[in-house]
Amino acid sequence: MTTEKGSISIHTENIFPIIKKFLYSDNEIFLRELVSNAVDAVQKIKRLGSLGQFNGEVGEPLVEVSLDAAAKTITISDNGLGMTAEEIKKYINQVAFSGASEFVEKFKDAKDANEIIGKFGLGFYSAFMVSDLVEIQTLSYQDGAEPAKWTCDGSTSFEISEGSRTTRGTSIILHVNAESEEFLSEGKLQEILDKYAKFLPVPIKFGTKTTQEEDGVDEEEKPKYKSVEVDNIVNTTNPIWTKAPADLSDADYLDFYKQLYPFGEDPLFWIHLNVDYPFNLTGVLYFPKVKDDFDMQRNKIKLYSRQVFITDEVKDIVPEFLMLLHGVIDSPDIPLNVSRSFLQADSNVKKINSYITKKVADKLAELFNKDRKAYEEKWSNIGLFVKYGMISEEKFYDKGKDFALLTNTKGENFTFEEYKEKVAPVQTDKNGTVVYLYTTDTEKQDGFIQSAEKKGYDVLVMNTPIDSHFVSSLEQKLEKTQLKRVDASVANQLIEKDEVLESVLSEEQSTSVKAIFEKAIAKPNFSVEVVGLSPDDSPVTVTMDEFMRRMKDMAKMGGGMS
Ligand code: ADP
Ligand code: MG
To answer: Which atom of ligand 1 approaches the CA of 121 most closely?
Structure first.
């Protein structure tokens, strides 16, 4: 083979600076791109083998990453399909021409053609973010193929010559540039591989490691161990989200959770996502035990594309109210490396968003219907999601109204329907409006709660930050129903009571006691009621106008949860 020199054909005159600066904000993704290309190459040879288009030995698929700190090189090699010199010119030189999309087009009827990761035809060039010189050594699977070598220093000129590879596959050798020497560290590379390659479908080897292996038994019949060097395989090739739910046990889901969040407490339950039309998405979402420090627990969902880690920024893909969920979403249909606003407008992303909402609602309904008691035990944790979801998404409200629970001061839980049935007979006013009483603070409002309960009314507990919004949204949604805080000025009057209780005070006494209190408080929007029914009753209640109080509360929350 003779040496050939030429120019890389590009669609934009100087694409390298663009790639270097704008395409990827993070240098470290060069390794993600090159390792995924190697994985693609291995998947392709397997595919060709199973289609009968390659009759040689496919062998054990393997991708190997190696570091030579002294020579300042990082090598990514695979035993995939390799490339001929012609293919290098076509697939590598023609920037922005994606070999992968052509491959998928060609084999689109084959079952797992979409296992091919690459889609953009630019990934390879991310190598130049960290290299002065990139070298390809490759040998194609094709009959009579000769090994080829390609080198390029990041300008638009390249060189192709005879290569030195003797086995099928490709090695990409990066001559790391001065600004990127941080990558010439074993620890650093291991860290990047852990982040991006942990669940790739082909074994990724990075050096070796020492482990203990059983080595016969000693005099006391106890097993002996010896140290052995074994391949350091950085990934698990078939993570649970790629498997069928029927093949998985609870322990599998919990183990996987521990893998993702080694320090996390066990989750409450999980949802296995699996859809292939009209978009492709798999994953497992976990409901964590909610702690007070919400912010620490947000943004825990990891986004993958065909088992390659992409990001843990899933803000626009997962509905806002589910941002506290943990787990993994894998979808080749989510556009990558594009701007936020584009993502929000993307129709697949919108569909994915509503699919996830629906799956979560279905799972909650299932848990509720299957084991109400267990569901009630989890309510203090999941109530937040459910309420937030019902407030923020109409569709979720419609589903949630069947499994959302209202909890009263006695700790009893009711569905909306059950609650209405329970309180309507006692708490309906003259206009036929059912009045729900609630407390935002069982300690501070204890006197009001007690007097309401003495009258035979039920009081709901609405004491979490989300509840003030939830109360307003319930009032809008529930027909002929009002919610009044238990200390509201109207709570006593609105509710019709048959029995009239006799006060121990004369009318005159009541009036003067009332005047004393009003003078002492001296603020608008408060009202004073002198009850004084019996010695163990609160003799006087001071209430605040419900509307005014809510306005104050909202102001305090500074606009609320959105
Ligand atoms: P994409 O992966 O999106 O197609 P890349 O720029 O990452 O884009 O790669 C361009 C093309 O180069 C690939 O589609 C493939 O045809 C070829 N290629 C890259 N790396 C390898 C490899 N390790 N083995 C075989 N072909 C490769
Ligand atoms: Mg690629």
So the answer is: 8
